[in-house]
Specification:
alpha+beta, single chain, about 35% helix, 5 helices, elongated
């Protein structure tokens, strides 16, 4: 996991502004997400549905988010009955794991370096986490 230097932090802010300025960016896309309240709520799912969320050690961030398109309708119902919410959120590019500045650490996002993908509830969170990852990856 990379730690942002002061210079990389400034580059992250600049890259974030570039991404924000171009709404057609491939870095951040709006999608529907299933947002589960906590890891305990995942026990409501059968094994196949739980695997969509992956093992916690493979993910960075503080939220249990997954694309709604990865679930069958009965599984979405199960998730919502266990306290989950179907929301509009964001999928973003995540080429490498990063340790984020304190103001972004707990902000309803989840990302996997292995999958090179992340999910966030808010646009700004998706943009800043994505840009920090891109800068640390040297892209």
């Amino acid at each position: 996991m990379y730690h942002l230097t002061d210079q990389q932090y400034q580059e992250m802010l600049a890259r974030a502004e570039q991404i924000k300025a171009d709404f057609r960016t491939n870095y951040v896309q709006r999608i529907q997400l299933l947002w589960m309240p906590d890891s305990e709520s995942l026990s409501a799912f059968d094994k196949d549905a739980t695997e969509v969320f992956g093992h916690p050690s493979e993910w960075d961030g503080d939220a249990w988010l997954a694309p709604a398109s990865k679930f069958l309708m009965p599984d979405l119902d199960t998730g919502m009955n266990a306290g989950g919410k179907l929301i509009w959120g964001y999928e973003f590019y995540y080429p490498t794991a990063v340790e984020l500045p304190w103001e972004l650490r707990e902000n309803n996002w989840r990302a996997s370096e292995k999958l090179r993908t992340g999910y966030a509830v808010r646009w700004n969170t998706a943009v800043y986490v994505c840009s920090a990852s891109v800068v640390c990856a040297g892209e």
